[in-house]
Automatic annotation (TrEMBL):
<dbReference type="InterPro" id="IPR036691">
    <property type="entry name" value="Endo/exonu/phosph_ase_sf"/>
</dbReference>
<feature type="domain" description="Endonuclease/exonuclease/phosphatase">
    <location>
        <begin position="23"/>
        <end position="197"/>
    </location>
</feature>
<dbReference type="InterPro" id="IPR005135">
    <property type="entry name" value="Endo/exonuclease/phosphatase"/>
</dbReference>
<dbReference type="Pfam" id="PF03372">
    <property type="entry name" value="Exo_endo_phos"/>
</dbReference>
<feature type="signal peptide">
    <location>
        <begin position="1"/>
        <end position="19"/>
    </location>
</feature>
<keyword id="KW-0732">Signal</keyword>
<protein>
    <recommendedName>
        <fullName>Endonuclease/exonuclease/phosphatase domain-containing protein</fullName>
    </recommendedName>
</protein>
């Protein structure tokens, strides 16, 4: 008993230095799912109109199962609609702590009591969410953002966002779909951009309709915080352009993605040269178009560590 009591005292006196695990994921809203000009051609082809509502519900159920399995502490979502939240299971281990339009921040329910505040930040040029919702947890602010594809100067966007976020005071981490090759824009002074350095689909987290993959998804954070182990999962990935499938009224004759004939598997090839038999390439793990498809963005996870001197200020 004595040993147990002294452990409890130690726990109370020592600030938690444990990192929080976090992920950002654009879960793809149903409005974008079947847009023939730029949406996911496999989804369009595999799920004809009478079945679309049930295909969407199954896709969202797989996304929730994936989120539950991630076990992370904080989840930043984009394109999360009311219909998506309607699929959350009653026994879910997550609670929606903050939201604005289609952007939301989920916190693992076991940590909900540690959330010390929620807020919305007026970040520039967002899409699908009027403001960037956020929570204060573990000495830092965690926000979700979805940047408009039309923004021309991402370095200027990061600069303007930083000026707004600095009003919050203290460490900040924004998980987002930046809709641009985020890692290519320079971060403002005192800030960092953390995107996965390597992914199984051309080091990107999403595919542009013109076939290139870019690191659209990741974390924008204050330099005094450490965001490590940034990794992307290919599970459920739905490319926008797929060899032999229609997109914008044309059949794609060249794409870095192809599906197996039975639609159980997705493949990626760096040079889009599939050879005469139209096969080869590397299997995209967990992304079979028929039964595994989830989103046109990869889920990106990271460990966030807030330095103690910052967290105590
Ligand atoms: C598909 O997306 C384009 C570009 O955003 C938009 O102009 C068009 O209205 C959409 N079509 C449908 C059917 O939603
Ligand atoms: C992905 O990144 C790794 C490590 O930086 C690099 O070696 C590799 O060539 C990249 N692959 C592609 C397809 O760009
Ligand atoms: C985006 O970045 C990736 C590397 O992360 C690069 O291979 C690709 O060409 C870039 N795309 C554009 C359009 O800049």
């Amino acid at each position: 008993m004595v040993a147990r009591r002294s452990l409890a005292v130690l726990f109370l006196l020592t600030p938690s230095a444990a990192p929080l695990t976090s992920l950002t994921w654009n879960v793809m809203c149903p409005d974008d799912e079947y847009n023939g000009s730029w949406g996911c051609p496999l989804q369009i082809s595999l799920c004809p109109p009478p079945s679309r509502a049930s295909c969407t519900a199954s896709r969202q159920d797989r996304e929730w199962a994936r989120l539950e399995r991630s076990g992370v502490d904080v989840v930043m979502l984009q394109e999360a609609t009311g219909g998506f939240f309607a699929r959350q299971a009653p026994g879910s281990s997550y609670s929606l702590a903050a939201s604005s339009g289609q952007c939301g921040v989920l916190v693992r329910s076991a940590l909900a009591g540690s959330v010390t505040g929620t807020f919305n930040a007026a970040l520039p040029s967002l899409t699908g969410c009027p403001l960037a919702p956020g929570v204060s947890l573990g000495g830092a602010s965690f926000l979700s953002a979805h940047v408009e594809a039309g923004v021309e100067d991402m370095a200027a966007w990061f600069e303007a966002a930083a000026a707004e976020l600095e009003k919050l005071g203290g460490p900040v981490v924004v998980g987002g779909d930046f809709n641009h090759n985020a890692s290519e824009a320079g971060a403002p002074v005192g800030w960092r951009i953390a995107a996965p350095g390597r992914t199984a689909v051309g080091n990107g987290t999403s595919q542009h309709q013109d076939d290139w993959t870019g690191a659209f998804d990741g974390f924008f954070h204050t330099a005094g915080i450490s965001v490590e182990g940034v990794e992307a999962s290919t599970e459920g990935f739905m490319p926008k352009s797929v060899l032999g499938f229609g997109q914008g009224g044309e059949v794609r004759e060249r794409s870095r993605f192809r599906a197996s004939a039975d639609m159980s598997a997705l493949y990626w090839s760096e040079d889009a040269d599939w050879g005469e038999d139209g096969d080869g390439g590397a299997l995209v793990e967990g992304a079979g178009p028929d039964a595994e498809a989830m989103s046109d963005h990869l889920m990106v996870v990271a460990r966030v560590e807030v330095e103690e001197e910052l967290s105590s200020s």
